[in-house]
Amino acid sequence: MSFAFADPPLSWDVDGDGEFDNVSDYQNSASITSQITMDGVDIGSPGDLFAAYVDSDLRGLASHYEVTFGPNQGKYFFLMLLYSNVSSGETVTFKFYDSETNLVYDINEDYSFVSDDTLGNLFSPIGFTTGDVDTSFDTSGGDDGACDDEDQDGICDDVDDCVGEYDECDVCNGGGIADG
Q1: 70 phi and psi, to 5 degrees?
Q2: pTM score of the predicted model
Q3: How large is the average pLDDT for residues 131-136?
């Protein structure tokens, strides 16, 4: 798996493979196929990650999965296995990493863990909605958090979104070719 625009929180995926690294630490699992929306719009895209927590303990990680058939063709869902050492009752909370904006969002919904539970599928995923941005995660790649790619719109998002017009040299708000 590659990350399209930025680096996810390093604590989520230490070896960079897009998968949960501590499977052998747990006895029980449950499965969730989910879709992430913001203001009613599907926001899943390549490079995004979906993480599950019990308190501050990471219990599951899913990278994007492009649905290639059926009514959800072209959408990106998250197929996650959640892990626990108890058979039921732990409250699982979620976070969403949006690679396009390089932000981590809290998810409004939570889940009460049940071993061997299977929630959602590619035809009818479990819907999760984004909440506030979680500023506790360092998605800056380990530096001081300062933006090194602030675009013309003033947003550090690694997306070239010129505010104004490009000149004939393809420079945003440029002066063009000099006279003479």
Answers
A1: 70, -165
A2: 0.72
A3: 87
